[in-house]
């Protein structure tokens, strides 16, 4: 299962967003791995402060379970001051539709 989505970091928080992800909590990484996430990348458009995220995971149900974990909810709270969030402190996300994908060697 592949997903891509957009989020938004506050314009004055680009460096802090980067720093926090370079220091990703081992407990959160363990939860992502345990829930089948095999690839996860986030890219920043500095002009718009939009973040583009792409991930590959074993299945949608496993990915959705990540949100309910205590460590993920703690991460959302930690990140909420520097990005656009919903009332539950989850990041505001805009799902993107896959238009093309190729994987070499297949």
From TrEMBL:
Any GO molecular function: L-rhamnose mutarotase activity
Source domain of life: Bacteria
Broad EC category: isomerase
This enzyme's EC code(s): 5.1.3.32
SUPFAM superfamilies assigned to the protein according to its UniProt record, in alphabetical order: Dimeric alpha+beta barrel (SSF54909)
Residue ranges of coiled coil: none
GO cellular component entries: cytoplasm
Gene Ontology terms: biological process: rhamnose catabolic process
Protein name per Swiss-Prot or TrEMBL: L-rhamnose mutarotase
Assigned keywords, A-Z: Carbohydrate metabolism, Cytoplasm, Isomerase, Rhamnose metabolism
């Amino acid at each position: 299962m592949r997903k891509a989505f957009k989020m938004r970091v506050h314009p004055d928080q680009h460096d802090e967003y980067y720093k926090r992800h370079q220091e990703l909590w081992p407990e959160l990484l363990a939860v992502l791995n345990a829930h089948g996430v095999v690839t996860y990348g986030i890219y920043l458009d500095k002009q718009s402060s939009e973040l583009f995220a792409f991930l590959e995971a074993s299945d949608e149900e496993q990915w959705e379970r990540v949100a309910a974990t205590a460590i993920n909810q703690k991460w959302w709270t930690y990140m909420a001051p520097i990005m656009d969030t919903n009332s539950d402190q989850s990041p505001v996300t805009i799902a993107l539709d896959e238009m093309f994908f190729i994987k070499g060697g297949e």
